[in-house]
Write a structure and sequence with these properties.
By secondary structure, the protein is of the alpha/beta class. It contains 13 helices and nine strands. It has one domain (5-291): TIM Barrel (Alpha-Beta Barrel). It has helices at residues 30-38, 48-51, 56-65, 80-83, 90-105, 124-136, 154-162, 199-207, 215-219, 228-242, 259-270, 281-286, 288-291, and strands at residues 5-11, 43-46, 73-77, 109-115, 142-145, 166-167, 169-171, 189-194, 247-252. The chain has a nine-stranded parallel sheet. Strand 5, helix 7 and strand 6 form a beta-alpha-beta unit. It is globular and about 50 Å long.
């Protein structure tokens, strides 16, 4: 496991409700938040690219903000036009690649995340569509998140292996035919996304699908703090897969109120990924019982 590189971080970094638990009130801009964030974690999953096609100047600004951290990496979520709406143009492809190339040339690119909804079950059509996207972005490292258990079978998993694509392992409430948390290795990388286990809120979100919701309502299903026992179970599975791959990305998406940050620090300790884990005083103040075992 010592030869395996761990990248541990969160899904996004620009959350107002991370103040004051992680960010201090003196910080006023989003880019200041990223610079601060990069001093504690070595990767982040960019979610804003799922909602908008960002300008290249924004990406270049991110690179400048993390220049003090040699091994900091960005993973980028593909725009929803490709994965959910499944309607995109040549111009959309160009916009995405332009930004990925900036990160690639500066050695800051960890991979492209293609995240599909639960409704994207395994079938001839979905395989053909996925193949189209994989070919479109064939020059990049690709992680694919599917949420329907029909993909957890030999045929679709062999499809991932043949395309040298990482099958994203996810942890979320086990509702319906949702995929269970069971790491699968399809190439030399592993990508783990932890969404939390807030079953009631997740069900409520499903029932309100398509309705207009506030940010707080949309985020409620991710409002979950993993227990020490749950994290211990997860870390043991991560240690086992680390013996089979060269890189492991662990992304925590239970972001409300900084809970992803707390759990990320705890996982770093359990996986022994750093000889010295630095935890800001703000986290110690707001989550004293969870962080007291971590020493600066």
């Amino acid at each position: 496991m010592n030869e395996t590189k761990f990248f541990i971080g969160t899904a996004g970094w620009s959350y107002k409700d991370w103040k004051p638990a992680f960010y201090t009130y003196s910080q006023s801009t989003k880019f200041d938040w990223l610079k601060y964030y990069s001093h504690y974690f070595n990767c982040v999953e960019v979610n804003s690219t799922y909602y908008a096609y960002l300008s290249s100047d924004i990406i270049k600004g991110w690179v400048q903000k993390v220049e003090e951290v040699d091994d900091f990496m960005f993973t980028v979520k593909l725009h929803q036009d490709f994965t959910h709406k499944r309607k995109f143009s040549v111009g959309n492809i160009k916009d995405v690649k332009e930004n990925l190339n900036i990160l690639t040339k500066t050695d800051r690119f960890g991979g492209l995340l293609l995240q599909f909804p639960y409704s994207f079950a395994f079938s001839d059509y979905t395989v053909q569509y996925l193949q189209k996207l994989l070919d479109t972005f064939s020059e990049y490292v690709r992680f694919v998140e599917v949420r329907h258990s029909s993909w957890m079978k030999p045929e679709p998993l062999n499809f991932f292996k043949e395309n040298d694509v990482t099958f994203c392992t996810i942890d979320q409430p086990e509702i319906g035919k949702a995929i269970i948390f069971e790491p699968v290795i399809t190439n030399q990388k592993a990508y783990i996304r932890l969404h939390g286990r807030n079953t009631d809120a997740w069900m409520n979100s499903i029932n309100n699908f398509g309705k207009e919701q506030t940010y707080e309502q949309q985020s409620q299903r991710y409002d979950y703090l993993y227990s020490k026992g749950e994290l211990a179970e997860i870390s043991e599975k991560l240690k086992k897969i680390a013996e089979k791959v060269k890189e492991v990305f662990v992304i925590l998406n239970n972001h409300p109120f900084g809970k992803a940050v707390v759990n990320a620090f705890e996982l770093m300790e359990m996986l022994d990924v750093k000889s010295k884990i630095v935890v800001p005083d703000s986290i110690r103040v707001h989550f004293p019982e969870r962080i007291k075992s971590l020493l600066n």
